[in-house]
Amino acid sequence: MPDQAAIRNPDRPSLLAGYATVPNVPDELVREDGSIRSEWLSLISHLDRLSADERERAFARGAQYLRDAGVFVRHYGEDNNPRDWPLSPIPVIQPASEWQALGKALAERAELLEAVVADLYGENRLVSQGHLPASLVASNPEWLRPLIGVKPASGHFLHFLAFEIGRGPDGAWWVLGDRTQAPSGAGYALENRVASLRAFPGFYGGSDVERLVTFFRGFRDGLNAMRREEGSRVGILTPGPMNETYFEHAYIARYLGMMLLEGDDLVVDDGKLMVRTVSGPKPISVLWRRMDAAWSDPLELEANSRLGTPGLLGAVRSGEVTMINALGVGIIESRAFQAFMPRLSEVLHGRPLSIPNVATWWCGGEAERDYVRANAANMMIGSAISTRLPLEPEPGAVLRGDMSDIGLDLDTWLASEGRNLVGQELVSLSTTPTWEEGQLKPRPMRIRVFMARTREGWKLMPGGFARLASSDQDSSAVSLRSGGTVADVWIVSDKPVTEDTMLSHTDEVFVRSAPGLLPSRAADNLFWLGRYVERAEGQMRLTRAYMSRLPETPAGGTPLMTRLEAYLGKHGLDSAEALPPALERTLAAAVNAASQVRDRFSVDAWASLTDLERTVGKMRQTVVRGDDAASAMGVLLRKITGFSGLVHDNMYRFSGWRFLTIGRSLERAIAMADLLGSFAERSGPHGGFELCVEVGDSVMSHRRRYPITASRETVVDLLALDPLNPRSIAFHIDEIRDQVSLLPRADVNGQLSTLSRAVLRIQADLSVHTPQSLDQAKLTELGQAIGLLTNDLHAQFLE
Amino acid sequence: MLYDIKLVIDYTFQTPAAGARQILHAMPATLPGRQRLIAGSIEIDPQPAMRRDRDDFFGNRLTELAFNEPHNNIEITLKARVEVTGSTAARSASVELRELARSLEAETDLGARSPLHFLAASPYAGPDHAIAKWARAQVSDGQACAKIVADLGQSLHGEMRFDAEATTVDTPAAEAFAARHGVCQDFTHIMIIALRSLGIPAGYVSGYLRTLPPPGQERLEGADAMHAWVSAWCGPGVGWVEYDPTNATFAAGHHIVVAHGRDYADVAPVRGAIRTAGTQTSNQSVDVVPVGE
After folding, report:
1. Test mutation, B105, B196, B275, chain A, max A CBs within 10 A
2. In this structure, are A643 and A669 located in the same domain?
């Protein structure tokens, strides 16, 4: 324990010199008497010891990490305008003792929510006995009628919850909102923690900040324990890359080692939920959904949903799959429930709420309506079924009695719409320090905390995702609506913390686990990623070959350049442009394919791909045709090779990598057959052979292998038939054959699959050719045959 | 009155559709005191890989189908014999709006027939200002609910033009109302929105109409396909009444009920997700023939 006298020491760290708290509002860092709370002491003194420069560098490292990782910490949920939230470098620090008490209170609240939702989808006693107004349930779009009477397979509706909490003027924590549907943010909390580590590398390691990993491991083990049978899987269901929190889904999937699935990856067969993989359909019995229930099954819920899985509700009904959380639990996010929670706690648990929620009045009752009318000046009045926090009111809500947007006076509005409205008290929230203009400044804050049902009961994540307002002008919660920052939350233990890992604790002998399943959609995206990246590289090489010849080309052109222009045109590349738009399109397609399988990539590989796209965007402004464009292509080629290197150097050699590799080899072999078919003609334009060798990136090999100038024989030999040249057709056919033979279902009932047979045929065909026999017509034919492999691949794995 | 009903729904897909999964709401219901299903069958061609009958939340019988193999064509044929015995016009005097509101506030039942399900917005029948304003103009103070239902339906019938070509399944009711044209689905949704705006719980009934009228009577609109009309709750005494705004009549002996729901989304004859790249076309034909007339 720190020395109490030292805390009260009047010579405060110079860092706190300008830290002026708001009167009558508690602050997380300093007490009312101006002394520093003990859990903050070590971080503040650490920061105080750093020079101004060192501090800024430390903070910049944290921010840099998030940028590099591509974290877009977006305003989640309640607002439709996504914007990036910068990280506030100062964590919010809480003592472990307080967090334990909070965890106990929130576990009770979680059990209460479970009991309420079980009743709403069960016997509906709370309504029939008059504890809840029936209309609140019947008019709620999240009360999903097809699921009424359906008991969850796990026995529980709720497994993973978030609570928005804030500290009120009395210093106690308040629940501002319950998040049951598909709470996001836990992944961001993890990422913010990594950023903290980067910012305070020396400090964090030795600190007694509780680690997050134990929480996630407990949750994951709990999910695994709910599987219906050995061999069945746990997956994370995402709405896909268009969703603003997709980054987090991919991150969490990678972190927990779970499959990231979209609705289209799943099928229901004979009442069972299956994931479509390259090895055929495989059972899945636990789904952690990050998708709102309404979109999950177009057959029985939102008919226009293209995100869901037809028949999913059937699988839920037959008890074949556990949804985390159960479909339909979104109903209790409605803010009107907050009005009834104190009563429901008494009814269901026989005791008052363990932690208060925002004071809420449902305006369907006369007494409540009168109270709201009388106290409107300190309230938000808005939709009863809205799930927004009082501090983030929806359009059409009334703040502090300002009726200007409604066009009715308050009395009339409450009288006519009362049943659909609630009033919620506007609480002011405590402040916590952020870093602005080289100083600590107090800012109102709230925290999203996460709770998981584990085999040992509900556990509160020792951390969270804090949101800080952009100014302290309005210390009421409302100012959190716009702008602001996010911050990590540290729970400081009074005992030394031990390191932990995601690996399961087990005394059993280490067994290498089988590699995960590859969903067909992911395989498809990897295959096309391989093709697009290779295609982009080919387009760069062709463009460079053209641009570098341009300055020496006479005004009337040369036969080679004319043919090259036509060839570029055939591939959609406009030779009149320094940077052909088709190249940008190819890269965009590659980024798009990659963005759908981000859970399968290293952060570095992703960063290098998006960097490439950005560079092309920048070059477009400045690059001019000729040598300048040629050297720009050189820059891009080096960058794209960097991406390929990162991918092929660290990607696990399993199905995913095989599809990527097949895509690359297929594209390269097709392009080479096409190139040779167009330029390796014996009687073609002068310089065609050299062009092939250059675009085929085999200048060095050619020089070494053939002490003569390029001829049709040397070029076709080196670029088509030489199995040792990584640019030749033969090399890539061998590669495709190797990879295909290692993919699942390479043979069907002991017979080669159609794909395997087709590859083998091409390989055999190629192996008997000589440069003479592989004439232009044969080259064209070969290119077409290789192209057709895509269809066989699709038919076998991707449909 | 006995009826023989035959419904044929035929789907053609431009490119073969794989993994089709559908829910059918097509079999006439048995409603004590009102109608009785004597016999009924649904045939599916080609044979589905899975077929299961069950009841939905509102107590409607549905048939769930799943196809594994790709198909160019799916044909659904329903045959049923139904006895219709009762009508749905209000038999006793119904309450006026203020009293109705009081009854609804006291309501705590959330069972299948509870009026509480039919007050809030639903996917095809969300609130619309123009319809609400129009509805308000049709009623005078102190009118009984059942009278309001009949008056609203009558007015709507007078103002709307039946036009089988003007709207599609996905045309919003507000748009059909603004243009004052549409088919039974539009008439029904508009009337539902109007009734709900007044505080009268209102739902969607799907069903069949007798194809050819009895001698000397006019043929009813909407008899060539599955039909739709409105059910409205007029207080605990009267309960539910059913009104057909397309034909300006209370649902009587010529209306055969299949399903009750909040709107079309709950009771669409065929609801389904079909994975297909190309377009699909569908045809529906209905024959409702009185037996032994």
Report:
1. B105
2. no
Express each pLDDT in B59-107 by its tens digit. Answer: 999 999 998 888 888 899 999 999 998 766 656 678 899 999 999 999 9
Residue in A124, A148, A310 closest to B273 by CB: A310
Same domain, A642 and A682: no
Per-residue pLDDT tens over the stretch B179-218: 999 999 999 999 999 999 999 999 999 999 988 787 877 7
- A-chain residue closest to B121, CA distance: A139
Task: Report if residue A370 sits inside a domain.
Answer: yes
Q: What is the pLDDT of residue B265?
A: 94
Query: Are A657 and A572 in a shared domain?
Result: no
Let me know if residue A212 belongs to a domain.
Answer: no
Enter the tokens of residue A304.
């226009």
Tokens of A693: 């060798």
Q: B57 CA to chain A: closest CA distance, Å? A: 6
Q: How far apart are CA B24 and CA B51, in angstroms?
A: 11
My answer on whether A656 and A579 are in the same domain is no
> Does residue A169 fall inside a structural domain?
no
Largest distance between two CA atoms of chain B: 60
Do both A625 and A762 map to the same domain?
Answer: no
The answer to whether A268 and A298 have CB atoms below 8 angstroms apart is: no
3-class SS of residue A145: helix
Interchain CB distance below 8 Å, A138 and B114: yes
Give B-chain residues touching A268 at CB under 8 angstroms: 21, 66
Distance CA A135, CA A363 (A): 12
Residue ranges of chain A whose pLDDT lies below 50: 1-8, 10, 73-83, 475, 477-481, 506-511
The 3-state DSSP class for residue A592 equals: helix
**Going by DSSP bridges, is the β-strand pair A280-289/A233-237 parallel, antiparallel, or unpaired?**
parallel
Closest-CA residue of chain B to A120? B110
**Looking at residue A203, what is its pLDDT?**
84
Closest residue to B21, CB basis, from A138, A145, A310? A310
Asked whether residue A526 falls in the same domain as residue A564, the answer is: yes
pTM, two decimals, is 0.86
Q: Which ipTM was obtained for this model?
A: 0.94
CA distance B231 to B243: 6
Cβ partners under 8 Å of residue B242, min gap 6: B88, B205, B229, B230, B231, B232, B250, B251, B255, B257
Residue B257 and residue B203 in contact, taking contact as beta carbons nearer than 8 Å: no
Q: Which residue segments constitute the domains of chain B, with CATH numbers given?
A: 2-85+269-290 (2.60.40.2250), 97-267 (3.10.620.30)
**Cβ separation A139–B50 shorter than 8 A:** no
Q: Which domain holds residue A675?
A: 652-799
DSSP states of B214-242 = PTTSPPPTTTTS-EEEEEEE--TTT-EEE
Put simply, the answer to whether A299 touches B107 (Cβ < 8 Å) is no
Q: Give the minimum alpha-carbon distance from B97 to chain A in angstroms, rounded to a whole number.
A: 14
Nearest CA in chain B to A264: B275
Is A661 in the same domain as A730?
yes
- List chain B residues with CB under 8 Å of A138: 110, 114, 116-117, 119-120
Question: What tokens were used for B239?
Answer: 């309960």
Q: A559 and A534 share a domain? A: yes
Domain boundary among A376, A407, A425: A425
Nearest by CB to residue B120, choosing from A138, A146, A364, is: A138
Angle, helices A520-549 vs A688-695, to 10°: value is 140
Count structural domains, chain A.
3
A605 occurs within a structural domain: yes
**Tokens describing residue A568:** 């570029």
CB contact under 8 A, B116 and A267: no
Strands of B120-245 (E only): list them: 161-162, 181-182, 202-209, 227-233, 240-244
**Closest to B272 (Cβ–Cβ): which among A139, A145, A299?**
A299
